[in-house]
Amino acid sequence: MTTGPDERLGRVLQQVVVAAGLWLVGVSALCVPLSAVGLWDPVVGTLVVLAVAWQSWLLAARVPAGAVGRATGVLLVAVAVAATVWLGATRAEQVLPRRDAGSNVQAAISLAETHRRVVPVPASTIGGAATLERPGITLASPAFYEVGSASHPAVQPQFVIGPAAVYSLAYWVGGAGAILVVPPLLTGLTLLGFGLLVGRCVGMRWGPIAAALAALVFPVVHTGRSTLSEPLADLALVAALLALVSAAATGRGGLAPDRGMSATTNRATSERTAGGVAPDRGVGATSGAVAGLLVGATMLLRADALRETVLLTVVGALAVLQRRPWARPLLTWAWVGTAYALLAALWLSYRYLGDISGSLVPLAAGAVVVALGCAVVVLLSRRGVGMPRTVARLLPGALAALTALAGLVLASRPLWQVVRQSPDDPGSRYVAALQLREGVTVDGARTYAEHSVAWLAWWVGWPALGVALAALSVALWTVGSAWVAGRSLPAWSGPLLVAAGSTLLTLWRPGITPDHPWADRRILIALLLVVGLVVAGAAWLVGHVPGRVAGPAAASLVVLVLLVPTVLATWPHRGERVEAGSLRAVEAVCAALGPHDVALMVDSRAANEWPQVVRGQCGRPALSTTQALRSGGDLPATVRAVSRDVASRGGRLVLLAASDASGLRTARATDVRQVSAVTVQEDARLLEHRPDHLVDLPLDVWIGVAPTGPVAP
Description:
Helix content is 61%, strand content 8%. With 713 residues, the chain is of the alpha+beta class. It has a six-stranded mixed β-sheet. A three-stranded antiparallel β-sheet has the order 1-4-3. Strand 3 (144-148) and strand 4 (153-157) form a beta hairpin.
């Protein structure tokens, strides 16, 4: 059977997105054992990249795709390319591990240079085991843990392995600068996939509109410029949802015609599958397996992706109850991917899991409860226990009403709730410092979670949230009606339930330090859901408002309700380059260090920002002083002792300060000189207001030579 140009184009575009998602999780999965034994080098990495790319392409080809008209396809590609170029031209340059983006860069460099995830530090290079046995001296720094013993120390990066694995490949190609180009490329693919997903669910002609609107939402822009985990995880999730739609659209004997979320959506889902292969149970099972694997293995890219696995379990259980052939592969591979990712994290990122156990353990417990609950429901259904008729009759209306109520409750939280965490949490001190700087009441325990809906409104506007809530209520009413009537659920049901459930859980408990725009990366799925629902609402109006002019006019108004606030919120950030110039500062510091130098950080800012940079990019051993030593210990005596340790092994201890030169003077350093005087611009870090500008950030660094003689009186 041959295929027309629409089918071929749809197949190619979807294959690119799904293969890219599979490639991300495949590379990350293989990096786990290879980096554990020190084999993640350019030769092995190249073989992995090529092998995984080939297999991903072949597997993605087995996922049926919807038809995409030539004009629509060109527009989708144009939006993705334009977004990639814009984000690439304005990419951030966060190489210092001040936040997650810089931490990922340094973890990638460490992995690329040492070929290991957990990097042993020969004690002889830092003055012997006695150095780390001295109170106040450590290898640790933010996002990099000291593990092992004083005689056999090692450094373990924070977070899960996926971002470092993927970004390390770019480092081999073009150094640290090449890493910074990867997020724009991945975000462009995500936008292409998002447009295809909305097109499959709403109507393909609406795909480019959805992609363009999403490309203008500032949190999408901000993460797309930064080396965070979100550009990787979001691409994998969008690819998974595309595969899920394909699985759900595959009936027992073919693609089930699906009216979608509007009267205009039946074309894409009623076409033949791509490649001319007649849809069958095997095609649906493969699509379900791909969707499950992508969602489960996304935990290799982002630890909290377990949330989406839990939600997918509910979708899979519903599919089991309807005896869909793709349900069991979906569930099996979702939990296989999750189990592998969890074991990988326990092996190579156990300190990080310990740090986030307060949120991860309840999520894991919830996953167990949901899985057991779904199993019980399926068993009861198999024994003939069904939903009571009264409940079935009320279900569609109840779903719609509860959805609207949940939205109103979340939006009204600032009126009746102030969310706090333990004041002993390290984040509380940071929040308190921001509150003091911004002149608001100091209450560091606040998480500001009650304002999460307002965070959405900052970037897309309150009217758009109202439209999205109405569209979501109608969509869930449709799902409930189909379930009660015994019909197959619409193909878009799975993606909708996963995205809506993730949004609900995130808005209730964002679980992130609440300074903006950094915190807004937590609401990316919610923002994409809003965009998709608004576009679905516009499509519904075109199909249901009578008149050739009235329907399109009403739809245009709905789109403008989202477009105008989004453009106004993003406009001040259109040309920003966060921390551009940081690479120049790093190069200056590296050039100032000699081949036998060991760097010791002597003030708090140097200890926070520079140890791993010196160790990774500069290729020099690096140590740090702790806050306890700097504030209450005998810093000069400790510095001299470490200096003697290092000198006894043929090295020279160099002191590094990044606040001012006073720390060097306190430590009695000689030959003090400033080696970096670069000023960059960073995000404003606001708690209660939408950010609309950058602020100056000086990257001044001084170095001096540590004394080795006794402390002068």
